[in-house]
Amino acid sequence: MRYEQDRNSSGEVLRLLIQKMAAHPAAFTPLNYTVWYEYTTGINPPLSAAVSKVLDGGNSLDDKTIEKLYTTYISEFNTEAQQESLQELLGKIAGFTAETDRQAHQFGNSLQAYGKTLKENLDAPKLDALINNMAGDTNKMRGSMQSLQTELESSKQQVDKLQKELQSARGEALSDPLTGILNRRGFEGAAKLTFDDESALAKGVCLLMVDIDHFKKVNDTYGHLFGDKIIRAIADTLKSKIRGQDAVARLGGEEFAVLLTETNLAGARIVAENVRQSIERGKIRRLDTQEQISGITISIGVTTYSSGKSIVDLIDQADKALYVSKGSGRNKTTIFEQT
Description:
single chain; alpha+beta; Helix Hairpins; Alpha-Beta Plaits; 3 domains; five-stranded mixed beta sheet; two-stranded antiparallel sheet; 12 helices; elongated
């Protein structure tokens, strides 16, 4: 097991690392907790050395630094390391193939030589020797080909394993670790696919920008763990209100984006209001006191694609509409209006 501490010792670790985490600007995310846990317990020497180097340099651990530390020293799907493994494997295959090709070329030369010899008048002993040499070379070549086949089969299995791990790594790189929905990079990729498809654009594309109202106050009042629970709840609500071809992402902090395809502005408004009302009616239970907290609301800005616009343009338009929602009382949906 990676983590062998029992409940009591892990509780002591928790008290220590919470104090350490509080002194740094990174959010109290699972990634941040894992980095500090492995650093505090000393179970990951390379990570400990990297964290100590940052701290000894008088630097703080922000979200970007935490993500880099986690990806480099903890994540099982280290894409860079896997790329190196794949290159090493391909190099090994290339070397083995080159050696087999060399032996095949040598075998071909031997066959030509044997063919010339067979045209000579050979007595029985010389013919027997020639046949034995030919049989020996043939067996050697057969062995070489069998070895190559075995090596290729083994390499294929390793490539398949690496490919699966790389696909998982790409999935992690495109997902928000707290909510499981797309992160900014994943959202940009999804948006690019949509905006590269003229037929999809022709069917209507709308964008919702969503922001949690008074989120800092919520964090200050109930704590960051409850704030994280709210973020997850809103992400789950957004996922439940969209279709398979749509995309929902957490762009950072308390801000979300929803890309709706095959949807006109009226339809996007309906989706936005459905989400907003669901959040407003919902109640979220605190983990520490089991108290049911209500009154969490969101503000939404909505815009639609028009010819020549990019995803950056839509984000800017939806952001402006969102700003109007927040500036006029919050807990409402505003449609972007061209000026």
